[in-house]
User: What shape does this take?
Amino acid sequence: MRVRTTLVTLAAVAAVTSVAAPAAADVEVVGDPRGDTSTEDREVSRATDIVRVRGEHANSTVRFRLRVVDLTPGYFFADFPISTPDDFVDASIFRRDGQVDVSLSPNGPGSIECDGLRGRLFNRSDTVELRVPRSCLGNPRWIRFGSGTGVVRNGFQDRDDARLDGGFPAFPSALGEQRLFRD
Ligand SMILES: [Ca+2]
Ligand SMILES: [Ca+2]
Assistant: This one.
């Protein structure tokens, strides 16, 4: 397993350039190899094959932008587990029968009400976007995040995890070690 992460700490830059600098955000970008999707079938879906994910802990929102090799129409699932100092939740986006649903799940059964939770799938740019208001996370000081995808075809499941190079990923997807701070 190899892990590729790049951390951009804009907070440090803002602190030395100006006291009036705009509010800082912490960003982590994770690259993932092509062709490492795990499958139960002989034919691998390229829609699950993550190449890059960007997580941003911004002023009022935690934003994710995930890119895959080829986001074709049809069944698709992506999850973004989020760890905070006090909690663990899993934000997810799910497309089936042409309908897209987003949800925020606690570390257990049920779901969390979250006004402002938004997700979109862009087939043309092979991109998934998900936004989680920080208020739904208890306005945490920092977050750690993970991301993974899944497609089910003919009863078989394909999965990729942005932080794992091959191997059939667990669920929820693997968290990164980096804390993204908001203060
Ligand atoms: Ca991949
Ligand atoms: Ca992977």
Observations:
- The radius of gyration is 16 Å.
- Residues 32, 36, 50, 160-162, 164-165 surround calcium ion (ligand 2) (CB under 6 Å).
